[in-house]
Amino acid sequence: MQENKRKESKATQIVLITISVLFITLMLVIPLISVINNSLSEGVSFYFKSLQTEYVLSALKITLLATVIAAVVNSFFGIMAAWLITKFSFKGKQLLATLIDIPFSISPVIAGLAFIMTFGRLGWGSNYIDKINEFFGTNIQIVFAIPGVILATVFVTFPFVSREIIPVLNAQGKEEEEAAALMGASGFMIFRKITFPHIKWAFLYGIILCTSRALGEFGAVNALSKTRGETFTLPLEIDALYLSGSNDSITSAFAVSSILVFIAIAVIIVRNIVEFKAKKKLEHIES
Amino acid sequence: MYVELKNIEKSYGNYKASDHINIGIGKGKLVALLGPSGSGKTTILRMIAGLETPNAGDIIIDGKRVNDIAPAERGIGFVFQNYALFRYMTVYENLAFGLKIKKLPKKQIKERVIELIELTGLKGLEKRYPNQLSGGQRQRVAFARALAPNPSLLLLDEPFAAIDAKVRAELRSWLREMIHKVGITSIFVTHDQDEAVEVADEIIITNKGQIEQIAAPIEIYKNPKTPFVAEFIGQSSKIDDYHKLRGFEKGDYKGAIIRPEFVESFKSDNVKFKDVINYSEDGVIEDIYFRGNCLEVKLNVGGIILTTKRSLERRPIQIGERMHVIVYRLYAYDNERAYLLENKDLKGKELVTF
Amino acid sequence: MKGHKIKKYIRKDRVIPGFDLTMGISLLMLSFIILLPLVSVLVFSFKLTPTEFFRLVTKENILNAFRTSILCSVIASFINCFFGMILAWVLVRYDFFGKRLLDGLIELPFALPTAVAGITLSKLYSDTGMLGKPLTILGLKVSYTKLGLTIALIFIGIPFVVRAIQPVLENLDSQYEEAAYILGASKAKTFFKVILPELRPALLTGFGLAFARGIGEYGSVIYISGNSAKEQTQVVSYIIMQKLNYVDYASATAIALVMLIISFFILLFINILQICQSRRTNHV
């Protein structure tokens, strides 16, 4: 490792490091500071007041609900898919892995559109929803309602957990699981005793990533949510505040944003801790 | 026979991993599956364990056909090539795992684990994790873990491959001793003939998905049945026009295989060989390699290059020197089989060998 | 130790339990959450006749949006490749104070909600903003122009490039470099002839990922871009959203289909690259 760092001349080093630091400062740090700066431009009491409006609290509730459900659903899926992809071989495995990654590569707006085309008035799914509502006497709405917001959130965060676990399991191989299976251990027992201890950090990190993305999802939710104070999530509330144009509301938008910024920073710190732990463990095993 | 494979066929796509395999292994025997990479030996082991299913044929353990019996129900202990120790469990927990699954009472598990730890000399390491053990210790844990549920058959996949050369020799004799002490029927896979010869009671030689020969190590060494075995075992060189060598005639053979120990070379004034000097022929030393405990000498005998070993205790030789050369015996082969041919000139003569 | 062929098939016999269960659940969830909604888009867009489809997607403002999205994404991705290369190099090769912080900050655009990034950049570069004000004095307008759009895309694209290059650079065998060095190649020559070719697949992957994200980007660009049809600062995602708001589902799905096809090809391109890369490294 050390030898890898054959030293370029000191001047080159300084120039390159300076470019990097300037770029990061200009592109990332200044925006970050300006969020905090803007959010406090009308004082601390205004800051806290803007976090406590009815709209913001309702948006917070919806956001948390969607996020928790997305995290649970995608954790469950992530573990199932990772087990399937890393422990077995079957035809079409590569295709399956690619399909799981779809939400990474398409615009979130299209995700929103997809749900409208499925469950909206024109979608084939709306008939079934109507029938269910008729049968049970309920009034479930998907599009432009909370279920749609949840579905969109699940969609955009779908691959997060599986994508963190799969590389770890691939690196571990499957001999340990085979050995346990030869001894007659059940699938659940193998998972609990052998696989899970191995993936718990990656799993945790996957959940964190999933959570942070779910909290911040905008495009997909924007397409499916139209009622402020009822189906709006925090990013939508920020959007509404910002676009209403008055100085006060713009400052409020930044105040709400600052909460999400703090979460983002926390995620990055956790990521670093997890990575550090994983590296240490690797060195430990290799030594 | 304790373990029997009858007409086993197994292919992966177009690749035939097992082609009409028939094996019988006696109770209590320690058997090696020996062959080059890709010869199908690991497949055989994995099929016996139930990690793979044959396309056709029967696998019989203790008189019972086990093809459709789940791997865990076959009463098998399996030692993986890289041991597959559970890295998030201590040595103790590793050994206890299989017993816990069988829902044995706690006290009984403890007794059995302690017994195994003592048997395998792992005392004091119970609380360690696999990554805190040396290669040799890991192998012991893997061995003990496989034995824990009292299997009637032990399968080992390249048990020495993950260990460095120095410790390997020591572990070989340890494993052999251990298996005989426990008295369990065992099959291990290896591509290293020294390993097979040293450890096994019986060797099964595989090649291209087929069985070439099943016999005791000494038998395999002395009487290779097929051209493949003759060439694979020992340090062999192939010679086409062997009939040009003195004392051998051309038969219906395709060629011959000669091992260094079949060739003797000596200087003309060596009195020890004066009885046979008349049956020798001339050879010129082409090359000499120092092999640590002996010299390896390449001799050119009428255009045929023969290899022989020479003790370091004997008189020094040099490249270009003329020597007398005698070939005692060789393995001639046709397409199917290998045949031992003795030097006919030397029949009835008493031979001096070093 | 055996040939690839055997390894590939060895897994056919499944000793580890749970294949049916995990396969069933994975396929079920994948189908309901991802595939069915996307298929609905396809089905709906196939209801359009080809002429209708073409008429819808070749309207001037839509073509302009595609042009803007693709052009700005390409420019942003190129800029990101350049700075991403320097950043990755600095982070892998040098030790300096604050390196870990810099490394962590790279991740920010991944973790920050796009809408937050959008309003922040928009405010920052507006005429009265911290950076916008001095730039306006210099006669450079950023907010509500393609330049602003490109800056937003640089912001969200940078981690893709850095994270694609970093691991490859870390694993690059220093022997190549040393060999070139011993043979007398200059440092610049060593970089362009020895290191850069090794990094090319990773660089292209990073470019592809940043580009894919860029053309579909919504939250971070809509505030800064101004979304003016006249100024050609509308992006494709914005157009789709606009059509949705006007309940013009035919146009929305038609445009979405084109986007899906573009995404598919980028994904295919990246997959092929990665296969090539792993093949190359395996054969060394």
UniProtKB/TrEMBL annotation, chain A:
<keyword id="KW-1133">Transmembrane helix</keyword>
<dbReference type="GO" id="GO:0015419">
    <property type="term" value="F:ABC-type sulfate transporter activity"/>
</dbReference>
<feature type="transmembrane region" description="Helical">
    <location>
        <begin position="250"/>
        <end position="274"/>
    </location>
</feature>
<dbReference type="InterPro" id="IPR035906">
    <property type="entry name" value="MetI-like_sf"/>
</dbReference>
<feature type="transmembrane region" description="Helical">
    <location>
        <begin position="56"/>
        <end position="83"/>
    </location>
</feature>
<keyword id="KW-0764">Sulfate transport</keyword>
<feature type="transmembrane region" description="Helical">
    <location>
        <begin position="140"/>
        <end position="161"/>
    </location>
</feature>
<feature type="transmembrane region" description="Helical">
    <location>
        <begin position="202"/>
        <end position="224"/>
    </location>
</feature>
<comment type="function">
    <text>Part of the ABC transporter complex CysAWTP (TC 3.A.1.6.1) involved in sulfate/thiosulfate import. Probably responsible for the translocation of the substrate across the membrane.</text>
</comment>
<feature type="transmembrane region" description="Helical">
    <location>
        <begin position="12"/>
        <end position="36"/>
    </location>
</feature>
<keyword id="KW-0472">Membrane</keyword>
<dbReference type="GO" id="GO:0005886">
    <property type="term" value="C:plasma membrane"/>
</dbReference>
<dbReference type="Pfam" id="PF00528">
    <property type="entry name" value="BPD_transp_1"/>
</dbReference>
<dbReference type="InterPro" id="IPR000515">
    <property type="entry name" value="MetI-like"/>
</dbReference>
<feature type="transmembrane region" description="Helical">
    <location>
        <begin position="95"/>
        <end position="120"/>
    </location>
</feature>
TrEMBL record, chain B:
<feature type="domain" description="ABC transporter">
    <location>
        <begin position="3"/>
        <end position="233"/>
    </location>
</feature>
<dbReference type="InterPro" id="IPR003439">
    <property type="entry name" value="ABC_transporter-like_ATP-bd"/>
</dbReference>
<dbReference type="Pfam" id="PF00005">
    <property type="entry name" value="ABC_tran"/>
</dbReference>
<keyword id="KW-0067">ATP-binding</keyword>
<protein>
    <recommendedName>
        <fullName>ABC-type quaternary amine transporter</fullName>
        <ecNumber>7.6.2.9</ecNumber>
    </recommendedName>
</protein>
<keyword id="KW-0813">Transport</keyword>
<keyword id="KW-0378">Hydrolase</keyword>
<dbReference type="GO" id="GO:0005524">
    <property type="term" value="F:ATP binding"/>
</dbReference>
<dbReference type="GO" id="GO:0015418">
    <property type="term" value="F:ABC-type quaternary ammonium compound transporting activity"/>
</dbReference>
<keyword id="KW-0547">Nucleotide-binding</keyword>
<dbReference type="GO" id="GO:0043190">
    <property type="term" value="C:ATP-binding cassette (ABC) transporter complex"/>
</dbReference>
<keyword id="KW-1278">Translocase</keyword>
<dbReference type="InterPro" id="IPR027417">
    <property type="entry name" value="P-loop_NTPase"/>
</dbReference>
<dbReference type="InterPro" id="IPR003593">
    <property type="entry name" value="AAA+_ATPase"/>
</dbReference>
<dbReference type="InterPro" id="IPR050093">
    <property type="entry name" value="ABC_SmlMolc_Importer"/>
</dbReference>
TrEMBL record, chain C:
<keyword id="KW-0813">Transport</keyword>
<feature type="transmembrane region" description="Helical">
    <location>
        <begin position="249"/>
        <end position="273"/>
    </location>
</feature>
<dbReference type="InterPro" id="IPR011865">
    <property type="entry name" value="CysT_permease"/>
</dbReference>
<comment type="subunit">
    <text>The complex is composed of two ATP-binding proteins (CysA), two transmembrane proteins (CysT and CysW) and a solute-binding protein (CysP).</text>
</comment>
<feature type="transmembrane region" description="Helical">
    <location>
        <begin position="144"/>
        <end position="162"/>
    </location>
</feature>
<feature type="transmembrane region" description="Helical">
    <location>
        <begin position="21"/>
        <end position="46"/>
    </location>
</feature>
<keyword id="KW-0812">Transmembrane</keyword>
<comment type="function">
    <text>Part of the ABC transporter complex CysAWTP (TC 3.A.1.6.1) involved in sulfate/thiosulfate import. Probably responsible for the translocation of the substrate across the membrane.</text>
</comment>
<dbReference type="Pfam" id="PF00528">
    <property type="entry name" value="BPD_transp_1"/>
</dbReference>
<protein>
    <recommendedName>
        <fullName>Sulfate transport system permease protein CysT</fullName>
    </recommendedName>
</protein>
<dbReference type="InterPro" id="IPR035906">
    <property type="entry name" value="MetI-like_sf"/>
</dbReference>
<dbReference type="GO" id="GO:0005886">
    <property type="term" value="C:plasma membrane"/>
</dbReference>
<keyword id="KW-1133">Transmembrane helix</keyword>
<dbReference type="GO" id="GO:0015419">
    <property type="term" value="F:ABC-type sulfate transporter activity"/>
</dbReference>
<feature type="domain" description="ABC transmembrane type-1">
    <location>
        <begin position="66"/>
        <end position="270"/>
    </location>
</feature>
